[in-house]
Amino acid sequence: MRRSVLRSRIDSFRSRFDKTQSSDSVSVEVALERLGTAIDQHFAKQAATRVTADRLVGALDAIPQGIVLTDSQGSVVFRNQTARSYLSARHGEALVGSLMEDLIAEAAKGNPVSRTIDVFGP
């Protein structure tokens, strides 16, 4: 494979990670170094995002109220620890879990919903 074609392909791969323009006059070695740097930066950003997401999940799990997040189609993408416990719990909490599913379906239609539920018993 010609070096210019190889350099061009390396730049193409690098552009998937780094949107800055590359000069065609660089050597294959320089292009590979830039690709490596772009990949390292990409994974560093991914790691930082994971740390932030873990902190958010920890904060949401510390909240005593059940929190359920859905995507725009109404599919559940997150439940905090309290909400998860309602789905695998005894009868009263199972009723709460069922009601949560109904509320999610209503909210997915664009209707604001809010309910306070008191569960009594052992």
Task: Summarize the entry for a quick read.
The chain has 122 residues and is mainly alpha-helical.
How would you describe what is shown here?
By secondary structure, the chain is mostly helical. The protein folds into 2 domains: 3-52; 64-122, no CATH class. It has helices at residues 3-15, 28-62, 81-87, 91-108; strands at residues 68-70, 76-79. Strands 1-2 form a two-stranded antiparallel ribbon. A hairpin with a 5-residue loop joins strand 1 (68-70) and strand 2 (76-79). The mean pLDDT is 81.
SSE order in H/E notation? HHEEHH
Largest sheet: 2 strands, antiparallel
Choose one word for the global shape.
elongated
Count of individual helical segments:
4
Structural class: mainly alpha
Count of β-strands? 2
Report the portion of residues in β strands.
5-15%
Features of this protein?
mainly alpha; 122 residues; 2 domains; two-stranded antiparallel ribbon; 60% helix; single chain
